[in-house]
Amino acid sequence: HRAEPCTVVIFGATGDLTNRKLIPALYNVAVEGDLPPQFKVVGFARRDKSDDVFRKELEEGNRKNSRQGHNDELWASFSQSIHYHRSEFEDLDGYKALADLLNKFDEERGAPANRLFYLASAPEAFKPILEMLRAAGLNQGVGGKWARVVCEKPFGKDLKSARALNETVAATFEEKDTYRIDHYLGKETAQNIMVLRFANALFEPNWNSRYIDHVQITCAENLGMEGGRGGYYDTAGALRDMVQNHLFQLLSLVAMEPPTDLSADSVRDEKVKVIRALRPLVGPEAVGANIIRAQYTAGSVDGVPRVGYRQEDRVNPESQTEAYVALRLFIDTWRWQGVPFYIRVGKQLPKKATEISVHFKRPPQVPFATARLPGSSENTLVIRIQPDEGIALRILAKQPGQALSMQQVKMDFRYSSSFGKASPEAYERLLLDAMAGDATLFARRDEVESAWKFIDELENAWHKSDTPPPMCEYPAGSWGPKEADDLLRQDGREWRTL
Ligand code: BG6
């Protein structure tokens, strides 16, 4: 597929995402020569500023955040495509003026262009922006060209708000023109999960409850609430911020049935079935027994002292929001009967690392009567999503020498050494896909709503019951609360050491 010529309008263009991710992604796409011809970006935001000032700010962001560095000459030509448009999000006149601006660009080009509207504003503004786009007629393509919308996260904060937002989106754009971002799907290694599973004869036959003991997904971050993030985060928490979207997407890719083809809907049909098959956890008792929530207390990460979650900037000192969550989930399908999926995600953990580990069952019998199996001896397939992208397989081998003793050894594939070049950033891939009309790596309406349906029950048990499960604690810089270790210990298992 190819990105088609278009103008991208970014709402909330003075925000952090535009500066840190979106513009550097577009710049890198330009450096690679993949940007469609006659491309333009319009930043739409409330503050007054000129094109020049806007470009200068983005240039600074690009210097810091561009994956392939910053080249003055390339930037000079790329930045000519960037414009700024000032308006309130609720002001119809601002959208009419935007339409005039887009028409003017079309005249300069000599032909109408496609239009991609990117909602990167605060989530409260999504609804008015969509309504105003419709009122100004901008939701319709001109001259046979398309108009599409990209929605950043968070997509709602529960099922009710997600449904309401989906209604507003659906009243403005067709589902086929709607692209709900989950940037984890844009990560190269997340896309590789399907290739690993369905293009290698070695793995798929073993990928089920007969051979797999359990699966772990860890998403650790060594950051807290820097850069004012506490304000948003404290209204969300780890479950809403990370599990409902990113972790459930990874879970779906690991657990889905093979799709019949690689079209957007075939893949998403299979992914949503995984979420629908999650065994429901309803009520504080079931939730307490399977889900551990926690906040960090003061500690240190990488030798740097950190304050506790409740002492963070813009966090309520009595906050009941979790900065860490560990889950034990079951997927009620034939393939996964009885196989636990353990997920943990948290802030202020010792390092940044996202990985999936598939732990295989032990052989039914080991024919070396005198040899003892070492402690952690199961075959484990580790998919490193980030950093140090790659896949490792741990197997048992005989130690050299007269005696028969065994040791776990590692076979390792690393993206950086096997391919010799850095993978594109998630946003590069996703922006190009949206411009090319490929929605495979975007969340569909039913996926988002099914995920919220499951998450709502957990949030209810925590926040709407008289006997909520406890909020646990862990010192910043540790691997989470001891209750999360107990969760696996009860099952005779332990978290993988990262
Ligand atoms: C975002 C969350 O979606 O993902 C953040 O809102 C989190 O809280 C971020 O830090 C992590 O993304 P990545 O790509 O750095 O793993």
Task: Please sum up the structure shown.
With 498 residues, the protein is of the alpha/beta class. It is built from 15 helices and 17 strands.
Give the class from helix and strand content and strand pairing.
Answer: alpha/beta
The helicity comes to: 25-40%
Distinct small-molecule ligands in the complex: 6-O-phosphono-beta-D-glucopyranose
Rg is: 24 Å
Strands side by side in the biggest sheet: 16-15-14-13-7-12-11-8-17
Total of DSSP H or I helical runs spanning 4+ residues: 15
Average pLDDT for all residues: 95
Give the low-confidence spans. none
- Strand % is 15-25%
Count of β-strands: 17
- Report, as a whole number of angstroms, the end-to-end distance: 37 Å
Shape assignment = globular
Major sheet summary line: 9 strands, mixed
Binding site for NADP(+): 46, 88-89, 153
EC number: 1.1.1.49
Active site: 246
Domain Glucose-6-phosphate dehydrogenase C-terminal: 194-496
What does the secondary structure layout of this molecule look like, with pairings?
Blueprint lengths: L5 E6 L4 H16 L8 E6 L5 H15 L6 H8 L2 E5 L5 H18 L4 E6 L6 H10 L11 E5 L7 H14 L5 E3 L7 H11 L13 E9 L9 H7 L1 H18 L8 H13 L7 H7 E7 L1 E3 L2 E3 L17 E6 L11 E6 L6 E8 L19 E7 L3 E9 L7 E9 H5 L6 H11 L8 H19 L7 E5 L6 H8 L9
Parallel strand pairs: 1-2, 1-4, 2-3, 4-5, 5-6, 7-12, 8-17
Antiparallel strand pairs: 7-13, 8-11, 9-10, 11-12, 13-14, 14-15, 15-16
Helix pairs in contact: 1-2, 1-13, 5-6, 6-14, 9-10, 9-14, 10-14, 11-14
6-O-phosphono-beta-D-glucopyranose binds next to loops.
